[in-house]
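User: I'll paste a sequence; please echo it back and then give the predicted structure.

Assistant: Echoing your sequence first, then the prediction.
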Amino acid sequence: MVTNTPQSNEEHPRRKFIRQTTIAGMGLLLAPNLLSATVGPNENRPDENKKEKNTNIRKLGKLEVSQIGAGCMSISANYGAAADKQQGIKTMRTTFEKGVTFFDTAEVYGPYTSEQLVGEALAPLRNQVAIATKFGFDIEKGGLNSKPEHIKRVVEASLKRLKTDRIDLLYQHRVDPNVPIEDVAGTVKDLIGQGKVLHFGLSEANTDTIRKAHTVQPLSAIQTEYSFMERSVEKNGVLEICEELGIGFVPWGPLGMGYLTGKLNAQTKFEEKLDLRLTFDRFSPENLAANMSIVNLLNRFASSRNTTASQIALAWLMAQKPFIVSIPGTRNILHLTENLGATTIQITTADLNELETEFLKLNVSGGRMNAMQMAFCQ
């Protein structure tokens, strides 16, 4: 739960969006065949809803999914108190109805409750969606654990919680320095051979790790924070190696963990012990205020195009590379519709140049996570 100070009398872009008809979101509802993305490379697995190929999908390696996916973490954990179970189920099923076929969770979210919710919500839709989950933490003892036997145990438990016989995309959540990545990739390769996993991914890994893992078991996706205000992957070679090796890229935090929506400011109060952002330097009152110029830039650009800052931020991400599939998270149907409206926005080269020119005049204040979280990232 977050609270904010009153806004000015000028109509906020989100309220303007809600006041207007949700035409952009309807584009997804009416798009032909959008609900029939393939869920994996297993040619023997029937897809009774598959129709003609459409342009509303993207590829993560060989895994075809909707242009925008759904991050399921915030419904159950880490950004405040968990949503009511029925609200969470309704949100996920509505997300599917609006064209999303890619859902992202992890055992550590909750822990476990996010996977349980995803499993229950998507059980009736299982052959029409792709589910991604993650291993890599030792939830009982703390710290990291990617030992082969631990991976196998986690996968068995995740399959039960997700009410499924296979995981479409299995990520190593964080790279374990005590286990060679070749051993990790080999274990996932074995699980793929058994049909329990269909695709392999890494989260917050550097280029050396990516290359080593890919040699043992081809990677389908890399997940790392990336947004209009967080550009590390443009500089550390991660996007470049994904393009080189044909690996998809899944940005988490595509809306700056909610900041780029314009709903947060220096007076925002985060729930103690329930909202991780309270411990992140970038979400201190000082940095929330200092970075408002970035939100203002997106708002100015969006206002001139009758759209919203959130939609521009997501459309900007999609325009960076054709293999990028972001996973914004929300429990609010209006915000969901707003986010998905980004797929209808055409951003030109001139638009991208204008945004970049203005962005380069600004500074981003504060680190993206706390020291403990960053210690787990390569």
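The chain has one domain: 58-375. The two ends are 31 Å apart (CA to CA).
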